[in-house]
Amino acid sequence: MANTANPELSDKSKVVAGILQIFLGGFGAGRFYTGHTGMALAQLFTCGGLGIWALIDGIIFLTSNDRTDAQGRKLAG
């Protein structure tokens, strides 16, 4: 489902990605959600960098306005 209001904006939400990363980042859930499968697999195999990488990544997803999905589109707020 594409965002028709702004084609440069992803249909994925940065809030959803951040929450997934904070709570399920050890499985790479936030990165799988945004389509970054390589990064998600790295997080899966390292348990989210023992939780630290996943937590920091989740916080950055929630606070940053320039995170993108796998197609390079900015995540919706």
Overview of this structure, please?
The radius of gyration is 12 Å and the shape is globular. The chain is built from five helices and two strands, in the order βαααααβ. It has 77 residues and is mostly helical. It has helices at 14-24, 29-34, 37-45, 47-50, 52-63, and strands at residues 9-13, 74-76. The mean pLDDT is 92. It has a two-stranded parallel sheet. The protein has one domain (10-66). It is 55% helix and 10% strand. The longest helix is centred in the C-terminal third of the chain and has 12 residues, at 52-63. Helix 1 runs antiparallel to helix 5 (52-63).
Label this structure with key terms.
mainly alpha; two-stranded parallel sheet; 55% helix; globular
Brief sketch in words of this structure:
55% of the residues lie in helices and 10% in strands. With 77 residues, it is mostly helical.
Instruction: State the major sheet.
Output: 2 strands, parallel
User: In percent terms, what proportion of residues is strand?
Assistant: 5-15%
Number of helices: 5
The number of domains is 1
Shape call? globular
Q: Give the end-to-end Cα distance, rounded to a whole number of Å.
A: 16 Å
Looking across the biggest beta sheet, what order are the strands in?
Answer: 1-2
SSE pattern, N- to C-terminal: EHHHHHE
Rg over CA atoms: 12 Å
Q: Summarize the amount of helix as a percent range.
A: 40-55%
